[in-house]
Amino acid sequence: MAVHYCGLCRRSAFTGRRHLYSAGHRRRLRETLARLQEATAAARAAVADVAAAVQRYDPAEHDGRVWCPCCGRGVRRDRRCGGRALLQAGLLRHLAGPEHRRQTARFWRENRAEAALRERCLVPAEEYERFAQALEQALSEHQRREEERILQMAADIRETERRQRETVQAALQLQTEPELCAGPSVCRPPAGPERDSPCAAEQPGPSRMQTGPDLAWMESSQVLTFIGHQETEGKGNVHTGAKPPWLSEEEDGSKQQIGPSYEEFLKHKEKQKLKKLPVERVGANFDHTSQTSDSWLPSFGRVWNHGRRWQSRHQFRTESGEKKKKR
Predict the structure, then answer these.
(1) Which residue has the higher pLDDT, 254 or 258?
(2) Three-state DSSP state, 290
(3) Fewer CB atoms inside 10 Å of the end CB: C or N, the chain?
(4) In the chain, at which residue ranges do the beta strands (DSSP E only) sit?
(5) Closest-CA residue to 299 (of 311, 310, 308, 288)
(6) What is the CA radius of gyration of the chain?
(7) How many Å apart are CA 289 and CA 21, to the nearest integer?
(8) CA distance 54 to 62
(9) The overall pTM is greater than 0.85
(10) Do residues 200 and 216 make contact, with C-beta atoms less than 8 angstroms apart?
C-alpha cells in the first residue's frame, strides 16, 4: 500500500488514504475547522459595527495574524491606514478572495470534510464590498473628527497664550503708572520680605489675587546679596583664598595636642585585640623586645626549638588534663 503524507497531521501514514477516516485525523480536522469558523464569525461580526472598526493603531494589538489551514499561511487580521487600524479588514479581504475559495475547495476534497461546514469558512464577495464602502465612509468621518479635534486644541492654545500676554501687560502697566494712593508712606511697598502691602496686592485676577509678576524687588533702596568672589584678609574659607586652620596653627607654633596620638591609639587597639585571644596560644609569651641574631632561635612559647610539633601538642594536653583534675 502506498505511503500517504497528511499535511494536517504532519505525518506519513502507511495505510494510504485510509488515514483520512482514522479517529486521530477526524479529531484534528474538527479542531482546525472550529478555529477557522470562530475567526470567520468574528470577522463577519465586524461588518455590523463598522464605526467601531476604526481605531488608533497599536503595534502590540493590531499586528496579529490568523492561521488559515486551507491556504497554509498566516493572514494579517487588521489593516493599517496611516495612524489608524481597520479591525478585521485584512481577514475579511482574504476570506472573500477567489484564491481562498479555491484553496478551501481543495482542502475539503483532500481531507474529506463535511460539505455543510464549507460556507461557514467563506465570506461572500457582495458582503465584503458593502463592508469596504461602509469602512471608507467611517474612515473619512474619523479623519474629519480628528481634524476638528486638532483645530479645537489649536484654538485653546491660542486663547491661553492671549490670556497670558494680557496678564503680563496688565502687570507691567501697573508698575509704570503713577501711584494713585494718598501718599508714599501709605502705599509705597517697603523693602524686604514685607513689600507685599495691601495696596500693592490689588492686581487684576480672581478674588483680588496677584496674577502678574512682582517687580517690587527692583526698588533702588534694596540691598542685593553679592554672590561673586570676595577678597577678605584672614577670613573666609579655602574657596575664598583663606588658609586652612591647621596650616595657620603650624605657622604660629601654638598647636596643642589634645588626646593620644595616632600611634598610641594603634598600640592600644592592638592590645585590645590580643586580650581577646587565648592565653595559652602559640607565641603568647614571645618577647618582641629581646635581642636576636641569625644564630639564635627565639622561643615561640609552646613550640620547642628541637623536636616535632606534635610533642608540644601532647605536652599541652597533659598539662590541661592535670589542671582539670585539680579543679
Answers:
(1) 258
(2) coil
(3) C
(4) 4-6, 11-13, 54-56, 65-68, 73-76, 79-81, 84-86
(5) 288
(6) 49
(7) 104
(8) 11
(9) no
(10) yes
